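User: Modeling request: complex.
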Amino acid sequence: MFFFVAEKTLKQIERNENYSSLLLTLCERPAIPDEIRRASVITFKNFIKRNWPSLDASSSTTNPISIRDRNHIKEHIVDLMTRSPEHIQQQLSDAITVIGKCDFPDQWPTLLDTMVRQFQQPSTQNSFQSINGVLKTAHSLFERYRYEQKSDELWLEIKLVLEKFAPAFTELFKVKFDKKICFFFVKEIFIYSH
Amino acid sequence: MAYYPRKEADLIEMKNIFDSLYVCIKIFYDLNAQVI
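Assistant: Request completed. Predicted assembly structure:
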């Protein structure tokens, strides 16, 4: 019974401005119990899935996610994803994919820059766990290049990705996998064999 | 004589490395798919 009341209350406040930002704030704070963070990020993802794609000129006044909230989410969600633990990261990555499929590249031109910035963080802050989220998001956005019909629009998008994303990605691959993997496996083998 | 490892392998780190490597390969494939 309590759950129904809680869900109903959440549903009612969905239309308030800042609702999505509040959910993100909840899942960001380490002091908040993990189950609450998990519940808030899943609610956020479902809210985005339900409401993000439906924005058009006729519904811009009735859509629960205002333009201001949309911009706020797009500004912070990638950074938040890389700082989050894996179970939260996965949900945020799904949400970014939904947003990216609707808005990238025209209405979200900064997405690639933000991703590239994550790759270029100093290696102490740039663990495999944090870049994994960015990589998985990138793959879910670029996956459609495999099967989509050739068109000028598609090729322009790929060109943009190749110019902005590919150099930093290749550099990350060289740095991370040349040195770190070799070091890691040599270390493991050394520990096991002594 | 039986051999025992002295230390647990860091399985989480290992999983993260393999995950990253796997996704990197998929991205390389995505980005090259139209010219293959």
